[in-house]
Amino acid sequence: MKEGGMDAIKLEGGSPARINAVKAIVEAGIVVVGHVGLTPEPINSVGGFIPQGKNAASAIKLVETALALHEAGCFVVILECVLPHMAVATTSALRIPTIGIELGLFAMVKCKSYLRKNTIDCLKTLIPLPL
User: Fold this and answer.
1) In a domain, 1, yes or no
2) Which of 31, 55, 60, 129 is the most exposed place for a label (fewest CB within 10 A)?
3) Kind of enzyme, top EC level (predicted)?
4) Considering its fold, how many domains does the chain have in total?
5) How confident is residue 124, by pLDDT bands cut at 50, 70 and 90?
6) Candidate list 27, 64, 80, 102, residue with the active-site label
7) CA angle 102-103-107, nearest 5°?
8) H or E segment at 101?
9) What is the pLDDT of residue 67?
10) How much is the mean pLDDT over the chain?
11) Does residue 2 sit within a domain?
12) Who's near 18: CB < 8 A, 6+ residues apart?
């Protein structure tokens, strides 16, 4: 990470294996960014490019995943393509900042998805939102 000039890594989703990975990485002294909602890498596992949190089961899973990432040690959680009411609920449940991309506009900050190819650029262009 030092040689690459990185300050943090981003991990998507909240499977038990992913949560264990977050814990291990944080314990090694590396900063981790969590990512829930629409996660571009495993896109097929969430049903394609559709807003997340549309029904009760996916809404509960969204909040539980964000909480698990928080408890595992993530310092911020990205909410991508999350319905506004779910972004508010998830942000309210956490004690760490949230970043909203696309429909997650009711997070603590927002950024545009045209920067998706480089999350670091996205994190450098955060726009604070009043809650």
Assistant:
1) no
2) 55
3) transferase
4) 1
5) very low
6) 80
7) 95
8) strand 98-101
9) 95
10) 76
11) no
12) 11, 12
